Amino acid sequence: MMSFNLMFIKKRRLELDLTLQEMANKLGFKNASTYLKYESGEYSFKAEQLPMLANALDCNLVKFF
What we know:
434 Repressor (Amino-terminal Domain); 65 residues
């Protein structure tokens, strides 16, 4: 089973100079703290969120695994 690469997500967000709030907005969350819980692994990204996440980070879904 492949593991989800949260470090890639954080690194890519920082490379693109996106704030936590900007990511929250792109994924439809109300605030940055909610998004941070996903990025830190406290919450798990759902399958339907992955295309939006890939779009926000300008990358292919494969990069998440």
